[in-house]
Amino acid sequence: MVKQSMGIHHVTAIVGNPQENVDFYAGILGLRLVKRTVNFDDPGTYHLYFGNAGGSPGTIMTFFPWPGAYTGRIGTGQVGVTSFVVPNGALSFWEKRLANYNIPVTRKERFGEKYLSFKDVHGLQLEIVEREEGEINPWSFGGVSPEEAIKGFGGATLYSSRPEQTAELLEQVLGLERIGQEGDYIRFKAADRIGNIIDLKVSPNGRGRMGAGTVHHIAWRAKDDYDQMEWKHLLESYGFHVTPVQDRNYFHSIYFREQGEILFEIATDPPGFAHDESEETMGEKLMLPSWYEPQRDKIEKVLLPIEVREL
Fold first, then answer.
1. Is residue 212 part of a domain?
2. For the whole model, what pTM was predicted?
């Protein structure tokens, strides 16, 4: 039996100024800052996590904010568009809210669904779509109530340099269901009710260049360490070069680059974001892994101060 991915665990992007990042995703989009920590490979840089009230897999957008970073270019070898899902009937609320913050919005339709397309403050391409699927997000902030709040990921649009091979990986290896094709897009669906729709663009794009305003990688869910190891063995049996397991403190990760040059990660659902601070206080202070704790004073002096604030 083919293994079936539950869908997206998180999406990680590169952006610019960290306060601008917090203002956009918490202040405007109303997401919860569920974790403020550092890039484990570059502790002088934040790693910020935004999601629903509990920081559930399938809701987490994460960022490496580098002030003054050069601007990237969205293109092949990347996630081109990241989609958020909101409750049915909430799209008009979001259209008005984005307009109130002077964010240009384009209405689009794909596979019978209406999308609001817009960019964040650093150029990331985003969408909002409404669906019945997915649990209501009880988080309220800055004029966004649970009736309109982002529930998590609606999905992602992949820009592959080899769409045929990427399609084969999604369907034959990751076990996503191929729903159909409409124009330039092939749609796939994963097993869970959120973060489950992947649109693969089949027409060519210009080559992407990593930098501010681009997605660094997309992570798929593994139930636990055992499930992750099954995925690792399966991918290696298909000839993919998979990294050893990396301890990311809030999940364990393996990485591989698929044939269309997009960096994929498989991340475990546990232990989650509340194991080193309470769920009530998540995101309020800088959390460091044990190996960086002795350097806390030095790290805190380097990082720019940030705050979650109503705009």
1. yes
2. 0.97
